[in-house]
Amino acid sequence: MNENSQNEAKDLRAKLKIMTNKFQQSKKEKDQLQKDNKALQEEVLTLQSNLRQMIPGFANTSSSFPMLNELSNQTNEFYKYDCIDIFFDLLCPELNMKGIIYFFATAYNKVSENINNYFLPMDSTIKKIGCLNSIEGPIINVLRKSFQTNYKEMLKKFYVFADTNEIVSEIQNNLKLGNFSEETVTIIRNFVNKLSEFLMCYYICDPPLVVNYKSIGTKVLFNAMKHDPLDGFIKAKEECIVILPSLHKNNNEGELFGKGLVLQVNYEIPN
């Protein structure tokens, strides 16, 4: 028995030694991977900086203004978190499908209208002075670069120019969400302000990004290349309703930069 015990102890020590060596080796590999990951992150930041330097008119462009891919990712996060939170926490408990469509359609329509009105004096003045029919092309491209330098200051002025309270009041007068509580009004106002920031960035982006907000409430056949389910699982070619619009480059028919979010026509609202 003693000899057997000694042999077992030797086997255990040998196995422990092997395991210890493997753990040490794994730790070394982990440390090396962390170093490589840090180096890759630094390389990505350098590449992003170099890409910005390649943009025409970079000297007039704010380094803090998001690039096209960054705007696309931020839009996806806005849909995934802010919009879905409002959908489930604020809209679903009180509204039917028609009310939900009205909420998003009104917010997008009113904010888009305000942004167009904000830039209208500039557009009219340049066309009048230059005897132009349109300022699309090099003129607006240069202006967009200049706007990107001061886009945060422009947003502050826009919030003063376009009173968010008017949009909130219109939505509340028709939907009466949350019994007009201060918390509900704040949630809607914050949503409208964040939407305003996105639509402003789309407008001054070069090339511009266009959100197809007029599609909100329209019926479409589900296409995984163009749509994402706002909730649940949707089969290919199943009839759906657009709740949140798609994002495109240059115009509504341009390259797709963000999928629209849809619901099944017969979706049962969880309220």
Describe the structure.
- With 271 residues, this protein is α+β, with helices and mostly antiparallel strands.
- The chain is built from 7 helices and 7 strands; from the N terminus they run H-H-H-H-H-H-H-E-E-E-E-E-E-E.
- The chain has one domain.
- The protein has helices spanning 2-54, 68-91, 97-130, 138-149, 151-161, 164-175, 182-204, and strands at residues 209-211, 219-221, 227-229, 239-244, 247-249, 256-258, 260-264.
- Strands 2-4-7-3 form a 4-stranded mixed β-sheet, covered by helices on one side.
- The protein is extended and about 100 Å long.
- The relative contact order is 0.11.
Quickly list its features.
7 helices, three-stranded antiparallel sheet, 62% helix, four-stranded mixed sheet, alpha+beta, single chain, 271 residues, extended
Structure, briefly:
With 271 residues, the protein is of the alpha+beta class.
Task: Give me the secondary-structure topology.
Blueprint lengths: L1 H53 L13 H24 L5 H34 L7 H12 L1 H11 L2 H12 L6 H23 L4 E3 L7 E3 L5 E3 L9 E6 L2 E3 L6 E3 L1 E5 L7
Parallel strand pairs: 3-7
Antiparallel strand pairs: 1-5, 2-4, 4-7, 5-6
Helix pairs in contact: 2-7, 3-6, 3-7, 6-7
* β-sheet strand percentage: 5-15%
* Low-pLDDT sequence parts: 57-61
Radius of gyration: 27 Å
The main pleated sheet reads as:
4 strands, mixed
Q: What overall geometry do the principal axes of the alpha carbons give?
A: extended
Percent helix, as a range, is 55-70%
Strand order of the largest sheet: 2-4-7-3
**What's the average pLDDT?**
86
Order of helices and strands: HHHHHHHEEEEEEE
* First-last Cα distance: 72 Å
Structural class: alpha+beta
Q: How many helical stretches?
A: 7
- How many strands appear in the DSSP assignment? 7
Number of domains: 1
